Amino acid sequence: LDTNVPVANRAIEVALKRALDRIAIRWQAEARRLAPVDTGRLRASIAFSTPNQPALGTGVQELNQGPTAIVRTNVQYALAVHEGFDGVVNVKEHTREIRTAFGRVIAPKRIRVKAHSRHMTRTASKFIETPGRQLQPTFRGIVTDELQKATRGRS
Question: How confident is the model at residue 42 (pLDDT cuts 50, 70, 90)?
Fold first, then answer.
């Protein structure tokens, strides 16, 4: 009996890490679905990492609670989109391509937009936080499924 304990512990550890991968993939997919889209950059930047999938290059730490999954984005404006924002934004000088003028289609033309500031109001979207709450039952099911697979035939 004692010789099976390390084997069972290892099987459970592997199962929990597999479950964590599945949870992170599901969370990422739902966060991408919920992220507001203008250019698609924010949505495409949502990534995850787990001990089995260290895709973010941040080094996933094992906290006191055990292995951890991280779902995040690295675009600068993500926090303002996620948490909401009401304030003044400084806009750098840039070029813009226009294809319409006064409601008429024109040949594409590049124009220079001078640096300026503008007031911006954005409602919070909570695109990364919301899936964590909404998918709790699904996450529990994933953990249960992986543990059952790992412990089948071990009695």
Answer: very high
Q: State how far the Cα of 63 lies from the Cα of 70, in Å rounded to an integer.
A: 12
Q: Which tokens sit at 75?
A: 């675009």
* Cα–Cα dist 19/112, whole Å: 51
Of 29, 36, 128, 113, nearest to 73 by C-alpha is 128
Per residue, the 3-state secondary structure of the chain, as one string, reads: CCCHHHHHHHHHHHHHHHHHHHHHHHHHHHHHHHCCCCCCHHHHHCEEECCCCCCCCCCCCCECCECCCEEECCCCCHHHHHHCEEEEEEECCEEEEEEEECCEEEEEEEEEECCEEEEEEECCCCCCHHHHHHCHHHHHHHHHHHHHHHHCCCC
Q: Can you give the pLDDT at residue 9?
A: 86
Give the C-alpha separation, 60 to 54, whole Å.
Answer: 7
Contact 70, 52 (CB under 8 A): no
pTM: 0.75
